[in-house]
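Deviations from the work plan: none for this task. Representative record:
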Amino acid sequence: MIAHHPTVDMLLDYSAGSLAVGPRLVVAAHAALCADCRQQLERFETVGGAMLSAIEPVAVSENLLPRIMAAIDQLPAQKPEQPRGELAKILPFPLRRYVDSSAKWRRAGLGIDEIELPLASQQHRASLLRIRAGRSMAVHRHVGVEYTVVLAGSFRDAGVQYGVGDLCLAASPEHMPVADASQDCICLTVLDAPVILTGALGRLLNPLLRLQHRRALRRAG
Amino acid sequence: MAARFTVMAAGPGNVAAMRGAKVLETNEVRGVPENRHNDLIEAVALRRDRSAFAELFHHFAPRLKAFGLRSGAGADAAEEMAQETMISVWRRAETFDRSRAAASTWIFTIARNKRIDLIRRTAKPILDAEDFLLINPGTVSEAADGAAIAMQSQEQIRELLTYLPAEQKLVLEKAFFEDKTHNVIADELNLPLGTVKSRIRLALGRLRIALQGVES
């Protein structure tokens, strides 16, 4: 039973297309596991569809249809999906395309492994984390918000239990998730990139912030 | 599957083709050609039907262009968005499932993703494979059920939209058409964030009346 969901605002921004790439992946992964949120997204998207239907049409160029038809004729045959390895099989479908069969866990701390996902974003970083059964992440600080979706196993943080599908939204500066003793916990985690400061002092401080961000990631992961 | 067979038997190929003009006219009068669009997308999926695709184009491309323009794109970029969306309609037609979403909802999700791709200009388009309306039914572990009346809800929503107070409609349009977060909308309209949020909630509250059917 999934108990921790994205906020309604996040779902709405996802549906409208204004959610940033990082949190967007978080919502997609959660929704793949949560029928309630899928239904909620579908409702919001239905509003989008109704609005698209009701919009005042604008004439398109006469050659647009022939152009599209020509493009369709040039489309390459659709390739069957590449095998993506064992890991992809346990991932919800929105995450599968980010790992291939060469993806390997890299040690990121005591009892913690990480696979960084190639997210096309300057602002957010996404990783898969594996916390060994019973182990905890070191207490870590966030520069920004950290989103975590549990994909396997479970963890406790600040007295709250998070199981498969649950979204943990940690805006608090410090926390320390502990994996359940019975099995490894695998999560998607998305972290806000550090604030980029401007000005002379900022240029001096930014490398430090980036370093702190990478360290935070490494500790988190 | 049953639904698709029904389409083959009574779809645009025969019965509907004979009555096609009339059906379309009746629907257009009610402003609801959804059923026809569902048939057309399925015809593209099943038979790569070019005339069905052209009909979808004539209805949706001008709306998609309008959608692009509302997003702040210039005329060329708006047409490019319409073009990319229609190409995805062709490519991904198999993933359309009328029991999950109305045709315009499905096309909206594609257009929304194209808008994100075009705005971000990422080398690697990121989104279609992440959206459950755009993947093959069955890939999601649990089928999103109970959406058989998706279309009916959509018709109701469209009608309810016309009754929304202008200020609520405005914030919805900014959210859905202009790709704006609550914060940006608040800035633009010079309103407190709380007011924007409550207008969106009020609007959705009114519309959700029509959506409750999906739940039960």
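Chain B is about 70% helix and 0% strand.
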